[in-house]
């Protein structure tokens, strides 16, 4: 189940996931979904997933897609699943008229950075971002 994989990804990064099944269903299955999930299945269940969120550069009229999560189970890594999920994500974005896709990695995750470079992504300097909680 994607919920289990999302929790595994959080644990991998040292986070404690608070995602619930109800929240995942709301964000993926509502009449206006907040995100799109692409999954990779194997004989024993889900092997990985990609979570995609739309973006916009309004001043340029440019649609984009953020590859918010990409996760492949430990036992399935090195078999091309991540690459296949990225390719599916790129096709999904193109089909929705996107002209770019973004993805972020932990600054210390050199393996992921190399993976995205090999997949054709260019490293960019992130803009300063600010955040305010909306109670």
Describe the structure.
The protein is 33% helix and 25% strand. The chain is built from four helices and four strands, in the order H-H-E-E-E-H-E-H. A hairpin with a 2-residue loop joins strand 1 and strand 2. The longest helix has 15 residues, at 81-95.
CATH level-4 homologous superfamily of the domain at 34-118: Gcn5-related N-acetyltransferase (GNAT)
Radius of gyration, Cα only, in angstroms? 15 Å
How many beta-strand elements? Answer: 4
So how many helices? Answer: 4
CATH class of the domain at 34-118: Alpha Beta
| End-to-end separation | 30 Å
Secondary-structure-based class equals alpha+beta
Q: Detail the poorly predicted runs.
A: none
Mean pLDDT across every amino acid position: 90
- The helix content, as a percent range, equals 25-40%
Domain N-acetyltransferase: 1-135
Protein name: Acetyltransferase protein
InterPro entries: Acyl_CoA_acyltransferase, Bact_Acetyltransf, GNAT_dom
Pfam families: Acetyltransf_1
